[in-house]
Amino acid sequence: MNASHAHRHHPVFCTVVPPHLLDKAALSEDSRRADLAQRTLERDSLLRTRRRVTAVRGIVPTLAAPASDDPERTIYDAQHRTRLPGTKVREEGDPLSKDATVNRAYAGLGATYELFLKGFGRRSIDDSGLPLDATVHYGEDYNNAFWDGQQMVFGDGDGDLFLDFTVSVDVIGHELTHGVTQYTANLTYRGQSGALNESMSDVFGSLIKQYSLEQTAEEADWLIGAGLLGPNVTGVALRSMKAPGTAYDDDELGKDPQPATMDDYVNTHSDNGGVHINSGIPNHAFYIVATELGGKAWERAGQIWYDTLTGGDLTPRADFADFARLSTAAAVTRYGDGGAEHQALQKAWSSVGVPLAG
């Protein structure tokens, strides 16, 4: 990675609930449901604009003493307001809070830190021990969670469409991985590079859940946001890596629009060119690699994805074919040509219809 690339990081505003889902809810005949969805969309739009304005300044990597192997977590409580970060309620090493949401956020930050450290030797998001900050109880019935380029923020959900956004550790891992991407390949949040950005977060979010539960690839559910949908929604999660397009099918929210292969690639101007929709394609490729190799998915499949993301050859505007080519090369570099890893990569990208040769 050249020096200019290494120093030019442009954080983006990344939510875990895609706008197309909230758009549907905003059309509901249930006025409360529609109002809350609209309020979340308006808040997200404001935050996205603010992030775009501040992103032009970029981020200067931390020049500090060598990082320790221990996380530095701080949890804040927004007390249902929208001013960040809020009131500090738990710091690293503090005892359990009486607030279960605070404790879930704290544990989720720790699980994410631990996978990146023990799985890939990475010390926090920036590999230099960046403190991990999170704010809970953001806004009134706020139906989302996001990474704003500096910290995690969790809404409580409205109890109808969504529950508390700290309930799914993979959602916490998903959002923090946007930070890892920001500090490494810095994938542009639009079109195929944006879908890759979203997919990186789903991949490592899922791996963080699997690592926390000590699951093998065969035992994992491969769902993103399981347990997050409210009692009145027909569905099991926000997304499925095993079977994109099957996570929900609800009378009001519609059917999960994610494609599993390039045959069903969605061309759209909304959601930055469908970054939350077309991410189903590289998500499914990772699922195929992980299940072909078996065992603990973070050990080989995850290592290949991490090597590709952090290796310095993945450019900010990379498309699916670029990632397919570089991930296959990363598998050969680490594990050799013609082995199970190389074969799994070839099968996966072929299965989802992404060419390996330009």
In words, what does this structure look like?
- The protein is an alpha+beta fold.
- Helix content is 42%, strand content 9%.
- It contains 11 helices and 10 strands.
- The chain has helices at 3-7, 19-25, 31-55, 100-120, 169-183, 191-213, 271-274, 280-293, 301-310, 320-335, 340-351, and strands spanning 14-15, 73-77, 87-91, 132-136, 145-147, 152-154, 223-224, 239-240, 249-250, 254-255.
- The strands form 3 sheets. The protein has a 6-stranded mixed β-sheet, with helices on one face.
- A hairpin with a 3-residue loop joins strand 9 and strand 10 (254-255).
- Helix 4 packs across helix 5 and helix 5 crosses helix 6 (191-213).
- Residues 1-9 and 52-63 have low confidence and may be disordered.
- Unreliable runs, pLDDT <50, ≥5 residues? 1-9, 52-63
Helices and strands, in order, run as: HEHHEEHEEEHHEEEEHHHHH
- Terminal-residue CA separation: 22 Å
Derived from helix and strand composition plus strand pairing, the structural class reads alpha+beta
Query: How many DSSP-defined strands?
Result: 10
List keywords for this structure.
358 residues; alpha+beta; two-stranded antiparallel ribbon; 10 strands; globular
Describe, in short, the structure shown.
This protein has 358 residues and is α+β, with helices and mostly antiparallel strands.
